[in-house]
Design goal:
The complex is a heterodimer.
Chain A: E1 2-9, E2 12-21, H1 26-39, E3 43-54, H2 56-64, H3 66-71, E4 75-79, H4 83-91, E5 100-101, H5 104-112
Parallel strand pairs in A: 2-3, 3-4, 4-5
Antiparallel strand pairs in A: 1-2
Helix pairs in contact in A: 1-2
Chain B: E1 2-8, H1 14-26, H2 32-53, E2 61-67, E3 73-80, H3 95-100, H4 108-115, E4 118-124, E5 127-135
Antiparallel strand pairs in B: 1-2, 2-3, 3-5, 4-5
Classes of the chains: A alpha/beta, B alpha+beta.
Chain lengths: 114, 140
């Protein structure tokens, strides 16, 4: 249901999410993001261009790492969200708590901002 | 029209429920965004019932009924025989508190409340029914 690919280049790890993140598949996102937050590069890009659906279980994964990202002084940006997926973040005001941008270039600019 | 589907309480079946709801709502001339948000709300209630009321047991099942009799509203009944949990009495959590405590759950019902116009909980003859009502704004 969901596929998560990880690539690391210089100081930036990109997680590309393809498919649907719901209560059944959110564990995969949790494991992948947890690994990057705890052992990965200081810059984290989340490529959501292949993400077709997200429920609260997926939102919860992102929310649960906000504190760790702050404490560890990491930077994370999500990009490429389609309108429906973006709307789910907006409904709860998470667009104010996470960095959501349109393109990879904008996301890179955010994580490179020291 | 009344449409319904019944699936075993395994989280892997949430996708079947979403596909079913999308297909029913596709006939309603609604915007994609509106359909998507209703699918999400139903998914959240079903996930909640499967996990909390039925412990994801494949021996238990959950039924979703979609009633599209009126152009002005759609009603979803999500029915199970699990341990009754009245979601309308669930207090709304504080998002900042969830973040501070690094909790991964607790926001599904917030989404449902934001999306739907009315949420009712009915417990009758051993069945628990969560009834979601959405007022519609048909395109055109």
């Amino acid at each position: 249901m969901v596929q998560i690919d990880k690539t690391t280049e210089n100081d930036i790890t990109t997680l590309s999410i393809t498919g649907e993140v719901d209560a059944s598949s959110s564990i995969q996102l949790d494991e992948a993001l947890g690994e990057v937050v705890n052992h990965g590069a200081p810059g984290i890009l989340i490529d959501c261009s292949g993400l077709s659906y997200i429920s609260s279980a997926g939102l919860g994964v992102f929310m649960s790492y906000i504190e760790d990202i702050k404490t560890k002084n990491l930077r994370m940006a999500l990009f490429g969200l389609n309108e429906k997926v973006k709307n789910v973040f907006d409904i709860l005001g998470l667009d104010q708590l996470l960095t959501l941008v349109n393109t990879k270039e904008e996301a890179l600019a955010v994580v490179n901002e020291a | 029209m009344k449409h319904n589907i019944s699936v075993p309480c395994q989280k892997s079946n949430l996708q079947r429920i979403r596909t079913f709801v999308i297909e029913v709502l596709r006939e309603q001339q609604l915007s994609e965004l509106e359909v998507h948000s209703m699918v999400l709300a139903v998914d959240e209630v079903c996930a909640n019932m499967m996990i909390h009321s039925n412990k994801c047991s494949p021996d238990h099942s959950i039924e979703v009924e979609v009633i599209t009799k009126s152009k002005h509203k759609v009603v979803f009944n999500i029915i199970d025989r699990g341990h009754a949990f009245d979601i309308t009495k669930h207090p709304e959590p504080d998002i900042n508190e969830i973040i501070r405590k690094k909790k991964k759950g607790g926001i599904g019902l917030m989404l449902v409340k934001r999306i739907m116009d009315k949420i009712d909980f009915i417990h009758k003859d051993g069945f628990s029914i969560v009834r979601l009502t959405k007022n519609l704004h048909p395109a055109g």
